[in-house]
User: Fold this.
Amino acid sequence: MLQRSALASLCFIGLSALGCSKETTSSSNIKTGGIAALIDVYADDDTSATVHVELRVGGSSSNTYVALEGGDSLTATAAGKTKTLTSVDTGVYEADFSGVEGGTEFQVTLDRPDDTTASDNSGTLPDPFTLDDPTPDLSRKTDDLTLTWAPADTGDGMQAKIDGSCIFPYDHAMSDTGSFVVAAGKLDSTGGDKPETCDLTVHVERTKDGSADTLFDPESYFTLHQRRSAKFTSNP
Assistant:
């Protein structure tokens, strides 16, 4: 599921780098069934989360975004609070929540006075976890890198991403067992025959699928994430 979300956001994240041209249209031009609602909830700590919604026409990987107009609006409800999402870019809307924890249910509604309202979007936030700091100064070529987190064994999806100036990005799905070993040699160094030491950041993410309203485009989704990060120094 994380891979699907990353693919759907690829053009938005790197428009200039990839040569993508972002296009926009008004929601007044699009029926509810033509809108792909890409709904994510991101929690970077144990008590707060951000609801992030991207509206597109032409499927989840389209670069045509839908701007809400004509009285259309997005709202999210969690922990007894309802908030109207605000635009952070054309076709991209967010709202921040505090006082939420693992197991909190989130509901999102696209309210449309002149077309069909889509209110059956919901999901439950995964349980939070603590990511341990990796052992620093290990050799990427000869040493295994062990990632550990707790609590574990939830059955939810897990993903590890590692990036830094001296390696090529690393991305791997894993089971929620509480530990994962990045084997020696799996982090590919940049710099050719002169690899360098640098600080790396590891991102570990726990995800749970919710459900998007079937009134939307079939490529719509609702995914909820707990994200934790740590930095460490890595040797060639």
User: Anything to note?
Assistant: The chain has a mean pLDDT of 93. The chain has two domains: 2-127+208-227, 130-206+230-235. The first strand starts at residue 23 and ends at 26.
